């Protein structure tokens, strides 16, 4: 697997009148397998973090393990969970009570290929210069983990330059 990203490929959309970052990744796998990679704690921890609690309650705690040992868990509210098709949730940032990340993950399977469409609402489009590269990085880690490759080979410094793609795309879309 080539772990050096060749380009940023996220796009800007408006959903319900809110600027939204949208990224896609494809997997040669059934949707139920990709669903497991983004929802089951033992698979999720391979590329981003883990959760605890009872998702049937509509809320869990999520902790990013790839950000270091001392990262605090964040409250997640599950708005929609329709396996293996759609997950919509909000993550409340514990460091900034005003920061809530509204995320949508949609899976579509056709001819043995599943497309994951990831979306994050960005009420402040200026956040795209940080959020865009961040999700490119994590979704590439998901692809590596799903393929059984070493996620450590997906190196954050390779993504930092993507801010120059995302910033004008979201702050000056003309």
From TrEMBL:
Alphabetized InterPro entries for the sequence: ASHA1/2-like_C, START-like_dom_sf
Q: Which family does it belong to?
A: Belongs to the AHA1 family.
Superkingdom of source: Bacteria
**Domain named Activator of Hsp90 ATPase homologue 1/2-like C-terminal: which ranges?**
28-145
What the entry lists under Gene3D superfamilies is as follows: 3.30.530.20
Query: What's this protein's name?
Result: Activator of Hsp90 ATPase homologue 1/2-like C-terminal domain-containing protein
């Amino acid at each position: 697997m080539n772990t050096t990203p060749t380009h940023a490929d996220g796009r800007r959309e408006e959903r319900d009148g809110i600027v939204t970052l949208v990224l896609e990744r494809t997997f040669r796998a059934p949707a139920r397998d990709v669903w497991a990679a983004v929802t089951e704690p033992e698979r999720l921890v391979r590329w981003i973090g883990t959760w605890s609690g009872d998702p049937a309650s509509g809320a869990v705690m999520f902790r990013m393990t790839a950000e270091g040992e001392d990262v605090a868990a964040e409250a997640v509210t599950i708005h929609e969970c329709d396996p293996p098709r759609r997950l919509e949730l909000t993550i409340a940032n514990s460091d900034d009570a005003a920061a809530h990340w509204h995320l949508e993950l949609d899976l579509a399977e056709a001819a043995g290929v599943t497309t994951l469409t990831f979306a994050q609402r960005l009420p402040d489009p200026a956040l795209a210069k940080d959020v865009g590269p961040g999700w490119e990085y994590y979704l590439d880690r998901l692809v590596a983990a799903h393929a059984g490759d070493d996620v450590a080979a997906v190196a954050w410094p390779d993504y930092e330059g993507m801010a120059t793609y995302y910033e004008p795309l979201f702050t000056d879309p003309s």
